[in-house]
Amino acid sequence: MQLEMYGCGTDEAMLKANLLGYQSLGIEVLKAAFALLAKDSHGKEIDVNIDYLTDEDNPIRFDWFERREDLKPIKVEDTSTLKHQVKDTLRLIGCGTLSLTVLLLIIAGIWTVISWIK
């Protein structure tokens, strides 16, 4: 995994990794979410180690990881609306298919009865 700055500032940085690198980084981030606070952290620093994921000559290093509960929450797209839209669409298709099938069976039944009468 490589952390690189391609411009002049920290806002111009990128992460390069293979599948295993991204998976390992994800595991470390998940471990950070559930990590116990370090004893010397004054209540915020958590014990996370991503040094093994990067090369020694990597220019970007993280001195520490801090968990803060007072930060502005991340806006997450509400997927429940999408789920409801999908469910409503599937219900509409299912009811339409069922109604069309019943209508065709009724027409076939009427046709059969008329052909018997003739």
Work out the number of β strands. 4
Q: What class do helices, strands and sheet pairing give?
A: mainly alpha
How much is the average pLDDT? 80
For the record, the count of structural domains works out to 2
Largest sheet: 2 strands, antiparallel
Helix content: 40-55%
First-residue to last-residue Cα separation = 81 Å
Strand order across the largest sheet: 1-2
pLDDT < 50 stretches: none
Globally, the shape reads elongated
Rg value: 30 Å
| Binned strand content | 5-15%
Number of helical elements: 2
Would you kindly provide a written description of the structure presented here, covering whatever features stand out?
It is a single chain. This protein is mostly helical. It has two domains: 2-66, no CATH class; 76-118. It has two helices and four strands; from the N terminus they run ββαββα. The protein has helices spanning 19-34, 79-117, and strands spanning 2-5, 13-16, 45-46, 65-66. The strands form two sheets. Strands 1-2 form a two-stranded antiparallel ribbon. A hairpin with a 7-residue loop joins strand 1 and strand 2. It is elongated, with a radius of gyration of 30 Å. The N and C termini lie far apart (81 Å). The mean pLDDT is 80.
